[in-house]
Amino acid sequence: MHSAIEAADAARTRLDLARSAPKVFRAIVGFDAAAREGLDPALVELIQIRASHLNHCAYCLHMHTNDARKAGESEDRLHMVAVWREARHFFTEKEQAALALTEAVTLVADGGVPDEVYARAAAHFDEQELAHVLSLILTINTWNRVALATGKVAGTDERR
Q1: Residues of the chain with pLDDT under 50
Q2: Under 8 Å CB-to-CB from 81, ≥6 apart: which residues?
Q3: Between the CA of residue 99 and those of 9, 14, 126, what are the distances in Å?
Q4: pTM here?
């Protein structure tokens, strides 16, 4: 088991994408910002938290649960995101549809995005909102992969 200091030291041996490929990093930041436009901030955080659970990205999970708390999200709901199907009463139908789509897109290699999952989301979001929800799912999956590949350590929010 590594200490937090050892983990942080290990992470420093990996590249810093923002420094090493600033245009790429800025493009991801821009994609993320554009994806969130017009979406409820609470929904944005729920999507980002669920994808981060599925991708085992502790760095992003820590960051987005903190962001959700700052935005007024309840501890009860934060604890239930990972088991939302068993705790549906904590989430609206619209949030459930977004969480189901988040899971399908994040785990796309396990069976694609089922028609019923897509149809459920399309029933709760207009075309533009759905495009933004899908784009947000794509961006958090990208951020999870960046954090995991570059060894980001949970609890060291490095946003600039």
Answers
A1: 160
A2: 46, 49, 50, 53, 99
A3: 35, 32, 16
A4: 0.90
Nearby residues of 7 by Cβ (< 8 Å), 6 or more positions away:
153
* C-alpha count within 13 angstroms, C-beta hemisphere, residue 79: 3
Matching residue, tokens 């199907």: 85
Instruction: Round to whole Å and give the CA distance between 107 and 97.
Output: 15
SS3 15: coil
How many Å apart are CA 106 and CA 24, to the nearest integer? 21
Rounded-to-integer distance, Cα 105 and Cα 132, Å: 14
Alpha helices in the chain, H assignment, sequence order: 4-12, 17-20, 22-36, 41-54, 58-70, 75-80, 93-106, 115-124, 127-149
Burial class (CB in 10 A: 0-12, 13-18, 19+), 140: buried
